[in-house]
Amino acid sequence: MVDETFLAVPPEVVVSAFAEPSSWARYWPDLILDVYLDRGIQGLRWTVAGALVGTMEVWLEPVLDGTLLHYFLRADLRGEASPKRVRQEVRRRQLAAKEVSLGLKLTLEAGRAPGVPPALP
After folding, report:
1. What contacts 32, CB < 8 A, 6 or more positions away?
2. Which DSSP string corresponds to 27-75?
3. Where are the domains of the chain?
4. What is the tens place of the pLDDT at every residue in 32-89?
5. Are 59 and 72 a contacting pair, CB within 8 Å?
6. Which residues, listed in sequence order, are joined to residue 58 by a DSSP beta bridge?
7. For residue 74, what are the β-bridge partners?
8. Distances, alpha carbon 42 to alpha carbons 11, 48, 60, in Å
């Protein structure tokens, strides 16, 4: 699964939303994450356990006056899963990823009028 969202704030601001492991549990409550690569302001890569097994990445790419938040989830459901269950899970994860990124957008861009450059940290 892949998702991308533009946030009109610098990567240094966005990375702070993922800095604390407690935030991971809020964003992905059914996943157990273990960092295998901390890329600083470029993001994090995790191994995934719990409801899914695989890897996940948040990549923060500086673009124009903000950050393109890339989210990659490469994981399988535990055990046997019917094609229907896989499709349902993919859709659920897509909606959850967009909820996280749009929630960050609302929070991190709060008070910024459209068309106005982001405040620097």
Report:
1. 48, 49, 50
2. H-TTEEEEEEEE-GGGEEEEEEEESEEEEEEEEEEEETTEEEEEEEEEE
3. 2-109
4. 999 999 999 999 999 999 999 999 999 999 998 899 999 999 999 988 889 999 999 9
5. yes
6. 44, 71
7. 55
8. 7, 19, 5
Separation CA 9–CA 121 (nearest Å): 9
User: What fold is seen in the domain 2-109?
Assistant: Alpha-D-Glucose-1,6-Bisphosphate; Chain A, domain 4 (3.30.530)
What would the pLDDT profile of 86-114 be if each residue is shown by its tens digit? 999 999 999 999 999 999 999 999 877 77
Question: What is the side-by-side order of every strand in the sheet holding 2-7?
Answer: 2-7, 66-77, 52-63, 43-50, 31-38
- For the chain, what's the residue count? 121
pTM score: 0.88
Q: Do the Cβ atoms of 62 and 11 come closer than 8 Å?
A: yes
Distance CA 71, CA 43 (A): 10
